[in-house]
Amino acid sequence: MAETFDYIICGAGSAGCVLANRLSADPANKVLLLEQGGHDRRFWSRIPVGYYKAVYDPKMSRTFATEPSDGTAGRSVPWPRGRMIGGSSSINGLIFIRGQHQDFDDWEALGVAGWGWRDVLPHFRKLECYQGGESQWRGALGELQVSELRDDNPACAAWLESAEAWGLPHNPDFNGETTEGSGRYQLSIDSRWRSSSAKAFLKPVIARANLTVRTDAMVEKVVFDGVRAAGISIRGEAGPEVIPAGHVILSSGSLQSPQILQLSGIGPADVLGRVGVDIVHDLPGVGRNLQDHYQMRTVSRLKRPITINDQVRNPIELAKMALRWVFAGSGPLTIGAGQIGGAVASQHSPDGRPDLQLMAMPLSLDKPGEPLHRFSGFTSLAWQCHPESRGYLEIRSTDPREQALIQPNYLQSEHDQKVMVDGIRIIREIHAEAPFRDLIDAEVLPGPDVSSEDQILQIIREQGATVYHPVGTCRMGTDDMAVVSPDLAVHGVEGLSVCDASVMPKVTSANTNAPSLMIGEKGATHILAAS
Question: What pTM does this model have?
Fold first, then answer.
């Protein structure tokens, strides 16, 4: 007979590692944490700049493929997700930003009581150790290390000056009173290394006698006794195995938590019937409400060799990078997916609230994992903070190894199209301001021939990409399409919760890792209270 656990957490990602820490803090709770991938011991998952190698490396991530659509000019867009302890927090771009305060008030307005800004702020503050110190907005006693940018680049400094000249005021802390304005992004790094959810929350407690961590364990489905979750079925190295549990928590992310629910018989009856899954509870919202941030880049060739593209091809500069990282914990090896940027309202914002997030970095490449361009490249990009378009996810078969169908429906809304086009206009106007304009030799992407709104929209369809922020497929709420209640319990069954980015009713305006950590932190309080 398999050992019985009080809590089984399926997925050791951003929220899952927080849950394992908090739920096992009481020695009376027997906790099992399951991860489909392996441990996060690889060098490129630990050094901050390693994001560019880790994100598409099959040893560290699993890349899902979306369905082609009109919004992507018939392309399938790759969606990599972390496949190791720490999940996507072990491979992401390290940017730590909570999002606009109104994002969480929007959740509350959608019927999710207890998740407004005033409710979630204490949980954000609890989990972080901000190196800038504690304040009414920030926490300094938590486990996750959050640092200011530690690399100064003259092209980035010029971009920020031009952004202010255009009209974006300086913002010293995007995690403070507002996200609006321009400034430097903060990163989840400690003295030199990535501060992933695994490193911050799991590793310090992994030796607890009441906490068991198993890797290389694929969760096939939740096992039910009537409508009560009685355990989970996994496929490990020794074959299929059923593990009993008092409470099952899905923390496998926005793509695999809904897949596991559907494979377990919880989801839209028509989808489950089509593939032959026995229905435990007809819950039509499972896999619906899929949202993601869609980005479009601009790439500029600069007149001077002052970008990382130039530094990596100079042995002396490479040596300087290594020495700065080793002795000072600074320099280009400490950067993430973006160094600077900000939040701005497009001309289509209905209330003047920022609806575009900008990001810029002194490098350029076709996609992470591929070589940097051989010219002095600088990248500026924009994504829409509050997309109206919604997609969906559906299982194709009863095989848990088969990827579900993923249709994000990018740019389905005409409003989304207009906002994205305006994002390129704003970036170009910032680039036209001094002093950044004096650095530019030419715009390489989209290029000077792409000028009309129709041309810009078409290039966005052809060249746009994910910002790696899928959310919403098991959303919180109390209406008929909600999957979990505000305390994260799955509607219609007992002993089963979902606690990860899939529960967001609406995508937050900026990067989603910090909110995912908060969901793990706050979710643990709800799950413990219900026990």
Answer: 0.97
- Asked if 154 contacts 425 with a C-beta cutoff of 8 angstroms, the reply is no
Contact status, residue 97 vs residue 510, Cβ threshold 8 Å: yes
Count the helices and strands in the chain (H runs, E runs). 13, 22
| Beta carbons of 513 and 96 less than 8 angstroms apart | yes
Amino acid symbol at 314: N
- Catalytic positions, written as ranges: 469
Range with the lowest mean pLDDT among 52-56, 228-232, 297-301, 464-468? Answer: 52-56
pLDDT digits (tens, 9 = 90+) for 319-372: 999 999 999 999 999 999 999 999 999 999 999 999 999 999 999 999 888 899
CA-to-CA distance for 140 and 126, rounded, in angstroms?
A: 8
In this structure, the number of other CB atoms found within 10 A of the CB of residue 46 comes to 17
| Dihedral Cα 157, 158, 164, 169, nearest 10 deg | -10
How big is the chain, counted in residues? 531
Distance CA 114, CA 513 (A): 20
Rounded CA-CA distance 306/361 in Å is 12
Pairing state between β 266-267 and 239-250? unpaired
Short-list 130, 144, 203, CA closest to 173? 130
